[in-house]
Amino acid sequence: MKELLFVAGAGGRQPNDGERKHRPMLRNANIDYSHGTFFVTIQAAFNKTIFGAIVGAKSVLNELGEAVAASLRSLGERYPGTEVIEFVVMPNHVHVILRLARRRDNRKHQLGYVIGRFKGWISKVYRDLVAAGRAVDVGSTPWQRDYWDKLVTTDEQLEAYRRYIRQNPAKWTRDRFGAVTSHSFGEIGLLNARLVGFVASQGAFTSELKPRLLWRKGAGPGMAGAEARHPDHLEPVISTFTSAQERAVLGKLLAKGRLFVRIYPGGIPPQDELEPMVAAACEAGKALLISPVPSGTGINKQRAVWCNEYVLKNAAEVWAGAITPGHTLDSLVKALRPRGAGTEARQPSIEARQPDSGVGAAGRQP
């Protein structure tokens, strides 16, 4: 299994030009790549999360991720003699087991030919989606250079790789360092209140902040009307308050003396480093800071996703600012939307713009 983990985790970043000149070849000169069974790992560019999100133990794909899955399912139709035995599309990589039949018209490097054509097609889909504002823009290609492969020679190896692929989404949780409430400062009793969640994507103008109701648990479809334009309730507002629009909401809550629960994906700062208004709110019993990790741990992308998942799952009603189509938050909202939520709460997509730097000190991330 160590071998499997090494293959899955290899190449976490994009090589620069200097590294490319001296980059060792990943193909094994002793392997015949014209036919056989191969376990292949393909990494997203810069190890970015661009294909969806893990919710619980399931990989929830966005539009680009669905295109990747659909292309893998159809490989056998497009390239005779190719069989896709098993695959999984993860937020930032793909695992697939390919079986290439021995055929006269196979190329010497048939595996590389099939993978190259697959990556090329998805690159085209990706560029179209980016142009339409429906995918995360990570540059000219969604893929890291090359791919990793292992020749599968026994039934035992095949079953081990299939099991690894099936368990991959569940193992994603290993990036999580305990419960979101593992560390806290402030009024812990606020978690027992009816919570109002707020989420917004990175990269949107705070001046264009127009909160809208996504869903209210136990409410009918009509609850997202004009009367629900602003989340101006007495209940505590829960959020990571990480994006510019989320921090703008935090600034308004602090100014009004409102209750709030703030989740820190990277650990709660020491009390003497907290914003004075935040520290004062905690000491007055009007705020709670929670985190799954100790102070100073630093932000981890998957932990940040998990914290947003906590907001969406634990809030009685959820409001949103700008949610960028195709990004992780968009995938989370779609996956966790309660049954019965209205049509206007189904697709909370507001076009993201360039970040607004005009956030006051009360709204800045410490």
Give the helices and strands, then pairings.
Blueprint lengths: L1 H8 L7 H5 L14 E8 L8 E4 L2 E4 L1 H11 L1 H4 L3 E8 L3 E8 L9 H22 L16 E5 L2 H17 L11 E4 L9 E4 L12 E5 L20 E3 L4 H13 L3 E4 L12 H8 L3 E5 L9 H14 L2 E4 L7 H9 L30
Parallel strand pairs: 8-10, 8-13, 10-11, 11-12
Antiparallel strand pairs: 1-5, 1-6, 2-3, 4-5, 7-12, 9-13
Helix pairs in contact: 3-5, 9-10
Rounded to an integer in angstroms, the radius of gyration calculated over CA atoms is 23 Å
The quaternary structure here is: single chain
Instruction: Give me the side-by-side strand order of the main sheet.
Output: 7-12-11-10-8-13-9
Annotation, overall tally of beta strands:
13
Q: What would you call the structural class? A: alpha/beta
Strand content: 15-25%
> Major sheet, described briefly?
7 strands, mixed
The CATH architecture of the largest domain can be named as 3-Layer(aba) Sandwich
